[in-house]
Amino acid sequence: MNIEDQRPKTQHRNKIDWQNVSRVLVIRLRSIGDTVLSTPSLIALRRFLPDAQIDILLEDWVAPLLTEFDAVDNVLPIGKKPLDRLGTARRLRRSRYDVVFNLHGGTTSTMLTRATGARHRIGYADYQYSSLYNHLLSSSTDFWNLEKTHSAEQQLALLGFVGVPVVDRPRSRLTVSENARSSLSKKFQSEKPYALIHPSSLFHTKEWPVENFAEVVDHLAKNGVESIAVASKPEREVLEKLAASVNSPITIKDDLTLPEITALASKAHVFIGNDSGIAHIAAAVNTPTVVIFGSSNRDHWRPWTDAPNEIVFNPFECQPCPGYECKVYGEPRCILTVSSGQVITAIDRVLAPKVKGEPEPAF
After folding, report:
1. Where in the chain is the domain with CATH 3.40.50.2000?
2. What is the C-alpha separation between 43 and 158, in angstroms, rounded?
3. Residue 19 neighbours by CB under 8 Å, 6+ apart
4. Which CATH class is domain 3-161?
5. Rounded to two decimals, what is the model's pTM?
6. Which CATH code is given to the segment(s) 178-351?
């Protein structure tokens, strides 16, 4: 047994004197959803430390999501090239942070946490190289005294562990910038209520069939709601297949920035899509959401919002799984067996509380 195995699972090596904390760094690398679900922690930190400098380190491609977020002072982007990461590490060291929260836990984020030289470095006991931290929490389930926790709760637990008030579990939130609204309006206009559709996914075990999305689009059109489908440029084929499958008008866009997608989602009548980062963007701007789940962990990744929302799924004993392939059935029955009727019923339920009347301008 090595030394790490013998260390206590939860520990504080030195107490944080929050009255003397002036600079805090939050590290949250990886995806869109991870970034959006870090906002409850940022909200809790800003509420607790209204006068402190609070910065967040994000991967450069996703950083624009939080550039105008009011709970942070600086969004620090980091690229993937080794020289870029080395330069970032040096800049972090010069910033002289008092406290660093690593909400990610991978090797790169751990090394960057240590590179800051911060007196207080907070993470989970199961992180790799956990000896580089001096505040270690055993698990989010231990903190919340729950069997299962959401990603947002997992991140909030690290804050609560060192004294930041988090008991109210803030919901995810994004800021819609005027620049994004303006640039979006130049790309297209919509005067009618519209649904935001996201039919693509990183894994086929999380991707609902396009033909089913087409049935949903036609159902919405019959009820006076247009559809706008978005995806990235490499996913253009999915959008074109959807457009060819519907019997009603649909707008497809593969050239929107993340701030523009945020602005688009904020005015949508409803969001319908696979479990993805775009679903979390919609939830964070309080848009009613319907998210179709396949292989992924519903307890961990469901929308973190007080807006009307539903997740649609069929339970299988093999859920959740890593999602790279279906090793049990050879095809992802978890997502393929979800019917368009199930999703349409969920849409009707989340839209039921909305007051009927004149639609507001989209942008």
Report:
1. 3-161, 178-351
2. 14
3. none
4. alpha beta
5. 0.93
6. 3.40.50.2000
